[in-house]
């Protein structure tokens, strides 16, 4: 699913319709201090991204509703409690209903870009250096998983209908810097042309003044009385004319400047709008006959691996995905996640709704090891799942098919070396985290850590700790460390204090697709057939005994 993304310089945590971005630089054993309102957002260790966020140049605006760099101090536990109280009273939070949930986040391998897939059929790409939004890609269907190629050039999106599309990661820029410079030079040229026209008007003014002086000299020769009278009349007329011309020129200049500024502003706004929402035609890569649930691409960008609801894992060449390498068949229910082992890309790990983990040689389609989580899960941890099963059996209107054991919802892999790996597993509606160790090709259990409630997502930090999110716990973000084959919480970790400060954001967190919907429904048509057959045989026997009058079955009987 990808609701927690750990990159080299930052950690992205999905919380409903927002993404918390925490800066990983020098974060070990460092507490989060309050950030003042006048502090620059770029220096803050925490940023919040969402689809309604505005551009980087508006980040200092006073409007805080759509600001992508809101301070984490504005959300506290009291606001989270108010939101939960409103939901319990039959109301709902405006934030949860007004914005769409985030389905998945994915960072590029170099950590320079972050892609976010929204439930409302869109994918947004951010630049992690300046945290500016590069482009928005509109999708045909609801996205289920996203991936980024190793060269950070292509964004792959798997949707609900079973298709995979490719988009340019950065989008198609409508104007580059050279075009903007040429446009600016063009505007400057227009300004110089207007200035030359004004200078020409000034020259004409001085020329008229010189002509007046020559005429004045001729009048002095004709007589002093005419000279004085004509000078007075002409002086008054020239003065009035100059004032009128001056007012007219100033008015024309102001109108020209105003029109030019408005025109430039409209062009700039149009360019920014085109930059934000870039229409890009998606390129179809491959298609499945059922819903796609996850996707992975190898480090060399040679193969793309997809899994669907029909228990299949397909390995295809990239980008010519019509060339299928192999199918990995072995799961009995839908496959929820596929992931390549970090230090051994020749092996693939997958989990399914049947509660199993399978290690694959995906190029050969060969199962190397299989682990059934039901063998290592205590029965007392299945109370949440058993309660849902009982409610389902009591329902007379519609009964969903639920297996005897919950499926694997998510897992996270940490590599020790090329042959040794540690896997953290989360089961559906089970308040625990299961740890297993992979010694290729064997998988053995380490510990089953019982929790207060079901974790929504787990991920390994680069420092070796395990981070997991709990929506209804006091510590929404929990960090644990593996010591002596046991998970022990790290109380002073900065991400723990971050979860407490940002508790108001974690209201209605999306934790993946509903498993009850993914299980294929079973209908007992044989029972109805047997009832009809018994009724028909009873009628025939009654007719033979003379109890009822026999009737004809058809025209020829």
UniProtKB/TrEMBL annotation:
GO terms for cellular component: cytosol; nucleus; tRNA methyltransferase complex. Keywords: Nucleus, Repeat, tRNA processing, WD repeat. It comes from the Eukaryota. Residues 173-193, 200-277 have a biased composition (Basic and acidic residues). It is found in: Nucleus. Residues 165-282 are annotated as: Disordered. SUPFAM superfamilies: WD40 repeat-like (SSF50978). Forms a heterodimer with the catalytic subunit Mettl1. Interacts with mei-P26 and weakly interacts with bgcn; required for the function or formation of the mei-P26-bgcn-bam-sxl complex. Interacts with nanos; may be involved in mei-P26-dependent derepression of the BMP signaling pathway. Interacts with Myc; the interaction may be mediated by mei-P26 and may be involved in the regulation of ribosome biogenesis. This is tRNA (guanine-N(7)-)-methyltransferase non-catalytic subunit. It comes from Cherax quadricarinatus (Australian red claw crayfish).
């Amino acid at each position: 699913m990808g609701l927690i993304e750990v990159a080299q310089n930052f950690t992205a945590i999905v919380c409903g319709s927002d993404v918390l971005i925490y800066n990983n630089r020098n974060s070990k054993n460092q507490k989060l201090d309050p950030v003042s309102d006048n502090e620059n957002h770029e220096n803050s260790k925490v940023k919040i991204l969402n689809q309604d966020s505005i551009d980087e140049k508006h980040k200092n605006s006073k409007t805080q509703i759509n600001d992508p760099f809101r301070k984490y101090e504005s959300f506290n536990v009291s606001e989270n409690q108010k939101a939960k109280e409103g939901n319990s009273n039959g109301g709902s939070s405006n934030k949860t209903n007004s914005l769409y949930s985030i389905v998945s986040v994915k960072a590029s391998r170099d950590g320079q870009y972050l892609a976010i897939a929204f439930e409302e059929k869109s994918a947004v790409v951010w630049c992690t250096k300046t945290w500016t939004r590069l482009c928005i890609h509109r999708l045909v269907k609801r996205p289920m998983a996203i991936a980024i190629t190793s060269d950070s050039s292509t964004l792959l999106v798997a949707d609900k209908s079973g298709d995979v599309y490719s988009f340019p990661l950065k989008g198609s820029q409508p104007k580059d810097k050279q075009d903007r410079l040429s446009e600016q030079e063009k505007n400057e040229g227009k300004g110089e042309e207007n200035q030359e026209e004004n200078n020409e008007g000034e020259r004409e003014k001085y020329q008229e003044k010189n002509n007046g002086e020559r005429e004045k000299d001729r009048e002095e020769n004709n007589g002093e009385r005419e000279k004085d009278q004509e000078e007075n009349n002409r002086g008054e007329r020239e003065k009035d004319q100059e004032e009128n011309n001056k007012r007219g020129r100033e008015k024309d200049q102001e109108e020209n400047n105003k029109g030019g500024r408005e025109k430039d502003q409209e062009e700039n706004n149009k360019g920014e709008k085109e930059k934000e929402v870039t229409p890009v035609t998606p390129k179809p890569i491959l298609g499945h006959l059922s819903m796609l649930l996850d996707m992975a691409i190898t480090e060399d960008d040679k193969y793309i691996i997809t899994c669907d609801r029909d228990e299949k894992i397909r390995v295809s060449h990239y980008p010519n995905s019509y060339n299928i390498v192999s199918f990995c068949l072995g799961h009995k229910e839908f496959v929820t996640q596929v992931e390549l082992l970090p230090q051994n890309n020749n092996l693939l790990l997958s989990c399914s709704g049947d509660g199993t983990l399978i290690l694959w040689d995906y190029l050969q389609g060969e199962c190397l090891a299989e682990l059934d989580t039901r063998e290592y899960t205590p029965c007392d941890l299945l109370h949440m799942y058993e309660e849902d099963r009982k409610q389902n059996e009591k329902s007379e209107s519609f009964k969903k098919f639920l297996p005897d054991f919950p499926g694997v919802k998510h897992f996270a892999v940490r590599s020790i070396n090329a042959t040794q790996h540690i896997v953290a597993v989360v089961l559906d509606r089970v308040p625990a985290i299961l740890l297993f160790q992979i010694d290729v090709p064997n998988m053995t259990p380490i510990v089953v850590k019982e929790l207060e409630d079901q974790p929504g997502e787990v991920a390994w930090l680069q420092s070796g700790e395990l981070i997991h999110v709990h929506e209804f716990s006091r510590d929404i973000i929990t960090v644990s460390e593996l010591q002596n084959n046991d998970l022990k919480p790290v109380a002073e970790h900065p991400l723990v204090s971050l979860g407490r400060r940002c508790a108001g954001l974690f209201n209605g967190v999306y934790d993946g697709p509903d498993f009850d919907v993914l299980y294929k429904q079973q209908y007992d048509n044989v029972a109805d057939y047997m009832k009809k057959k018994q009724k028909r045989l009873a009628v025939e026997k009654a007719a033979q005994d003379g109890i009822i009058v026999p009737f004809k079955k058809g025209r020829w009987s």
